[in-house]
Every structure is written in structure tokens, then in C-alpha cells.
């Protein structure tokens, strides 16, 4: 597959997948499909998969125009396929984040085993400000950081910095901006020094310890989003207001 919005490279046993749609690396349907394809390739030829990005920001989120009711099913279905591809990977998945990681651009890192963040990173899910909610974050965050922290992030829509995200248990490590790329490579090289079968089985055991079927959970969260939320007047008004750069007028229905 020829990639237009991502870049893929293999360095030894590490597959590097870069979001390459600057300046904000908006995750649209085309990028989602390219990421799915690249992950399939990586599953067959790498031991570690690193998802990172070009430019100053990891991603400001999914394409707003693809959230409208007529396009939302395709968007949600494809994004769910991408997220489950990451969650179900047998490989070690590392996400390296600089700058903004918002909305869908935050949920991709959430699906990875490890998030390495630059000290300038800002992470969050602002969907509630558009009268939407982030299905993947709702499915994953309560199990990762507890109900109250998840509720706070999702219902305020506020982004947190890298250090706060680490305190909450979202980010694994925070590296300084100046040495970020080098530190990420050192981290990955440290994993490569371990037994690949031991890493694979440790990941398998860790997954068993959570005993959560995220595919089932996400299916129910998506059902509420598509069958209830997206059909409200406020959900459409939030999108319109964002694109028209004005304050939304909520109807509560």
C-alpha cells in the first residue's frame, strides 16, 4: 500500500510508523486505513512497533467533518478497527508523543502499551465541548486511571500536561524536548535487549490480569454514540459551531 499520510520504516526488529500529515496530523479516514495497513505489515516483520509523528504535534484529533451523522458510522467503525488492531497486537507497542495529543490523537496512544511523552506534550479529549464524547477513551480510561480521573478528563474536556498525565498513570515516562528522539530510541533499544518471547508472554499475562474484553466494552460505547448521541441536535450544533468558529447554542436535545 502506498502511504500518503503516514510513513513506515523498519529498523532491525523495530517498525516505526509516523503520522505525517502536518501541521496537526489530523486523523481522517484515509490516515486510519493507512495506519491499519502499516500495523498489519509490522505485525509480520517487527518485534516492537513505535507510533510517532512528524512535526511539532502528535495529532489534534480526528477530522471534524467526518463526525456528522451520515459519515460517523464509517468513522467510528474504521477507528475502532484501528484501535483494536493496536490493542490486540502481540507486539510491544510504544507511542512517542510531542505537542498536542487530543481527541482521537489521544486515543491512539491510549491503545498502545507504553506512552513516552515530551515535556511539552498536552493530552486530552475535548469532544465534550462539541457535545460529543470520546468512545475509545471512555472504554479504556476508567480501567487505566480510575473512574474519577477518567470522569474529570472526559467531562471537562481539559488537556493535561505530560507530568500530570504521568501522575495519573497515562504516560509511562516524560523526556525533555531537547533529547526526546534520542531518549525514545534508548528506551526502545532497552526493550530490544530483552528476550522477545519473554516480552511477548509478559504482555500476554498482563492482559489476562485485567480480564477486560475491551472489544465488547467499546462495542457498547460505540452503540450509544451512534444510536443515541450522534442523533441529537446538540451533537450536530457542536460540529457546526466549531467549523463556523462561533459559540454553540445548546438545545439540550
Automatic annotation (TrEMBL):
Keyword Lyase: yes
Superkingdom field: Archaea
CDD domains linked: crotonase-like (cd06558)
InterPro entries: ClpP/crotonase-like_dom_sf, Enoyl-CoA_hydra/iso, Enoyl-CoA_hydra_C
Keywords per UniProt: Lyase
Protein name: Enoyl-CoA hydratase/isomerase family protein
Source lineage: Archaea, Methanobacteriati, Methanobacteriota, Archaeoglobi, Archaeoglobales
Amino acid at each position: 500500500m502506498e502511504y500518503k499520510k503516514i510513513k513506515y520504516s523498519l529498523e532491525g526488529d523495530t517498525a516505526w510508523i509516523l503520522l505525517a500529515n502536518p501541521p496537526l496530523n489530523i486523523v481522517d479516514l484515509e490516515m486510519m486505513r493507512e495506519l491499519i495497513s502499516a500495523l498489519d505489515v509490522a505485525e509480520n516483520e517487527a518485534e516492537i512497533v513505535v507510533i510517532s509523528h512528524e512535526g511539532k504535534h502528535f495529532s489534534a484529533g480526528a477530522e471534524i467533518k467526518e463526525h456528522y451523522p451520515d459519515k460517523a458510522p464509517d468513522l467510528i467503525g474504521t477507528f475502532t478497527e484501528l484501535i483494536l488492531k493496536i490493542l490486540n497486537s502481540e507486539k510491544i507497542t510504544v507511542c512517542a508523543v510531542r505537542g498536542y495529543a487530543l481527541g482521537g490523537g489521544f486515543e491512539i496512544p491510549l491503545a498502545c502499551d507504553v506512552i513516552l511523552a515530551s515535556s511539552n506534550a498536552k493530552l486530552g479529549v475535548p469532544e465534550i465541548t462539541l457535545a460529543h464524547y470520546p468512545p475509545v477513551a471512555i472504554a479504556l480510561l476508567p480501567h487505566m486511571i480510575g473512574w474519577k480521573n477518567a470522569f474529570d478528563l472526559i467531562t471537562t474536556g481539559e488537556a493535561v500536561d505530560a507530568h500530570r498525565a504521568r501522575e495519573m498513570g497515562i504516560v509511562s515516562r516524560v523526556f525533555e524536548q531537547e533529547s526526546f528522539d534520542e531518549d525514545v530510541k534508548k528506551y526502545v533499544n532497552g526493550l530490544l535487549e530483552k528476550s522477545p518471547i519473554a516480552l511477548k508472554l509478559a504482555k500476554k499475562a498482563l492482559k489476562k490480569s485485567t480480564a477486560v474484553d475491551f472489544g465488547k466494552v467499546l462495542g457498547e460505547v460505540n452503540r450509544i454514540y451512534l444510536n443515541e448521541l450522534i442523533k441529537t441536535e446538540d451533537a450536530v450544533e457542536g460540529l457546526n459551531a466549531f467549523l463556523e468558529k462561533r459559540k454553540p447554542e445548546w438545545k439540550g436535545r
